[in-house]
Structure formats: C-alpha cells, structure tokens
Amino acid sequence: MVPAMAGTTAKLVLPDGKETQLPVIVGSEDEHAVDITKLRADTGYITLDSGFMNTGSTTSAITYLDGEQGILRYRGYPIEELAEHSDFVEVSYLLINGKLPTKEERQKFSTDLTRHSLIHEDMHNFFTGFPPTSHPMAVLSAMVTSLSAYYPDSLDRNSPADLHITRILSKVRTIAAFSYKKSIGQPLMYPKNSLRYCANFLHMMFAVPSEDYEVSPIIEKALNQLLILHADHEQNCSTSTVRMVGSSGANLYASIAAGILALWGPLHGGANQAVIEMLEDVQREGGDGKKFINDVKNKKDNKRLMGFGHRVYKNFDPRAKILKNMCDEVLQHLGINDPLLDIAKAMEEIALKDDYFISKKLYPNVDFYSGIIYRALGIPTNMFTVMFALGRLPGWIAHWKEMDEDPGAKIGRPRQIYTGEQLRKYVPIDQRTK
Ligand code: ACO
What we know:
By secondary structure, this protein is mostly helical.
C-alpha cells in the first residue's frame, strides 16, 4: 500500500453539513486518489461509480498506463522496448517476479515451463466430450478449472505458488492448441521440449504426425510480440475478475478460469474476433466501410466500430501503433495480400477524420489489427480470444500473486444503492392481481 501524503487530506462536505477529511494517496507516477476506505464508517455514506469509471480497486506495482499520453509500461519498462527486444517468456517472468531475469533465472524458468507442458493423459478424454462446434473459449475455461481437480494441492493456500504458476503458464498453451486440434478433428500434437514457448505452441497448433513441420522464425517473432502486447493492462474487466475471485481465497486455476470467462465478451477480449467479422460483413456487402461507419454514427442496431475506443486510452493505444506496423511487415514477409487489411485501413482513415469519433476520443485499440495478423499466421477467427487469453495469462497471474502476497488484502465486496420496493406485506396467492 502506498502511504498517504503526510498530512494531506481532501475535505468532503455532506448535505447534512457533516464534514470529513479523506486521506490523499499518491502513486509512484504522481497519480492522486482520495482514499475513501473509512468514509462509510465515519459518515454513513458510500460512493457510487457504475462501471468503475473512476474507482481504484487496489494499489499495484505491476503495470503503469497513462491513457492521455498513450503510455504503457510493465514494471517500469516501456511496452515499445519490451516488444522490440524481449520475448514472451522473459516478459512473463518480469510481470510475475517484478524484475527481468538473469541468464540463470531465465534458463531455469524456461526449463520449468518446458517440463510442465504436458497435461494429464486423462484430461485428453475431456476434449472428446465437447461437441465439435464448441467455442474454444468454453473448452479453455472448463479445462483450466479442471486443472484444480488434477492438482488438488492447489486448494491448500500454503502450497508453493511458484509451482502452480509454472504449471498453468505451460499447460494453458497446450490446452489452447489441443482445443483447436479437437475442433478440426486432427490428432492432438504433444509438445516438443526442444522448442521455445511460442514455437512449441505453433508446433502443437499446426504440425500433424504424418509430416515434418518447421516453425517460421518470422511467425514465431510475430507471435512473441502479439503475446507481449497483450500480457497485462492493469485493472481491466478480466484482471479485476481474477483479483475478485482470488480475493475469496479461490485457487489460482479457478481464479484464472474466471478471468478467461470475463475476457470472452465482445466488449473485451472478444473484440478481435468481432473486428474480423465486421470486416468480413463489409467485404461481403462489397463496400469500403463508409456505409458501416454511417450506421455506427446513427447508432443503427447499436452497431459499434469494433476495435475502436477504449475506457482508458483517449488519445492513442500504444499497442495499436506497434500492431499496425507489425501487420504490414508480417503480411509482406509472408507474401499475403489480405483485402480485409485494405478495408480496415480505409475504415480507420475515415473514422480518424470524422467528428463523431474525434469528439468521443475513439481511436483504434489493440484489437483493430491483431485479428488480421492472427489470420496471416493461420490462426482461425474463433481462436483469437484464446490467443488473447494466452497473452494475458502472465498479467492475470502477476495480479493474483500480488494480491495473494498482500497481508492487508480483503475479500472484494462492493456495496450498492438499493432502488427496489420498500418493506411490504406478503400477499397470499389467491389475493394477488396481475
Ligand atoms: N464505435 C462507435 N461508438 C462508440 C464506440 C465504438 N467502437 N465506442 C464507444 N462509442 C461511443 C458510445 O456509443 C458512447 O456514445 P454516446 O456518448 O453517444 O452514448 C460513447 O462513445 C462512450 O462509449 P462508452 O461505451 O460509454 O465508453 P466505454 O469507455 O464504457 O467503452 C469500450 C469502452 C467498451 C472499449 C467501447 O469503446 C467499445 O465498445 N468499443 C468497441 C469494442 C472493442 O473494440 N473492445 C475492445 C476494447 S480493448 C480490450 O478489451 C483489449
């Protein structure tokens, strides 16, 4: 917990004339907050902030972001530098442990991840139990919950968290690839210990037993960068869910499974799939996106320009900037000409000049271009949100660990303002009217 500025308080005057002094908290990047922890006890009032537009649910030392300036840093390191110089395994270590690993630490972390990549053979049967039409997010969340059944030591809060962290980081990758193989009716490909984290994932996704498969270094690098860009984003819907569920004392696997489910929605991690579906609709209608954008502006059928807008970024999303460049590079390297990319660029150009989007501060977010890159890498649309989950996993783990290690952490339990009926008398069924 960051200490309050010595002696600094904010004064709140309530309608009944009661006054109270609230401590002011300052973060390491000079972010200011009014600490209302004792407000209800002192005054009887609570605060109301639907959608948490303005409420800090915790202090955290993991990720700093400034939506106005378009800044995103993991443990102090700019996202641009990490995307350029690091890889996903190193960034995962950084987020979870708070520092970049030494050579030895890095080697041990990689070896541990490699050793834990298999899932229990009995879990393979689960995959055959799901219908072939299952969305891979449904399969992924169910399988991650099931991990707690296979590792019952996770239910003991005193069992070593590091072991569960390594297990889940490694096994989610295997489960994600298996859920894809199952959905297309191909044999499950076991992980290969000689391959690095991302290359191993690509092997499990795209290799078949009957042929040799070589991982393209360009695809491996692009995947590393995509996962790094998604690895954490402080208190978003899914991460707050992980913390909320974990705050009850639920084990790591259960808490992460809850995060996966929160990510699924189209306003959050499901947006990358929704972007591609939107671009395909525009393509099918033979348009350039102008009609779609007009419909969005007129709020026809509550349409939104998917991949645009962000609760926090009101200037630009630094991840979208990196992805736009990456998109061009990857498609060029792979010799792919994707008409959806042309439509996306045309729609972006129209939107960025249009007063509707300018006045509402709506800019492309991380999902506007990520789907096009995933398509180029051969990843099917219904796996996009699974890819997001794979990327966000170290962030969720880091937040769960930070909360788990905080001796002052409390169970998450918001309050509400009740707006229903006041006390009334029970009515026997034969006296009720419609
Ligand atoms: N297209 C059109 N209009 C939009 C969009 C959009 N993508 N996003 C917001 N608006 C409009 C809303 O209609 C609203 O207009 P109004 O004031 O006339 O009612 C105004 O902008 C504010 O929108 P809110 O939904 O209140 O903003 P909020 O901060 O709650 O929403 C969100 C952020 C959910 C990301 C929103 O911008 C959105 O729905 N975007 C599309 C989905 C998307 O791309 N999600 C991915 C987010 S990034 C991530 O999760 C990794």
